[in-house]
Amino acid sequence: QTYEAIDGLDALKKIDEVKVDMVILDIMMPNMHGFDVCFELRKYYDIPILMLTAKGETSQKVKGFHLGTDDYLVKPFFPICSP
Q1: What are the strands, taking DSSP E only, across the chain?
Q2: Mean of the pLDDT values across residues 17-22?
Q3: Which of the listed CATH numbers 3.40.50.2300, 3.90.79.10, 1.10.10.10, 3.30.1340.30 matches domain 8-74?
Q4: What is the pTM of this model?
Q5: CA–CA separation, 81 and 68 (whole Å)
C-alpha cells in the first residue's frame, strides 16, 4: 500500500500513525523541507529513505547522505531500455 503526504509535517504525522517499509522523499515540500523530514525520521526510525528530487547539485546530494538518506535520485530520470 502507498501513502501520500501533502507536506513534510503531514509526512511525519502519517509515519507516526502507520507502519511503513520505505519513504520516498522530495526535498522541496511546503511547511517542512525534505532535509528536515529526513533528519527527524533518522532520530526515531530505521527505515530506508530514498530522496527523489529535482535538486541535483553535488552539495545537495552530500547533504542528503549526511542527514541519513539511503539513496538519492535526481528527477527527471530516463530509464535505459535495451533493444
Answers
A1: 23-25, 49-53, 71-74
A2: 94
A3: 3.40.50.2300
A4: 0.86
A5: 31
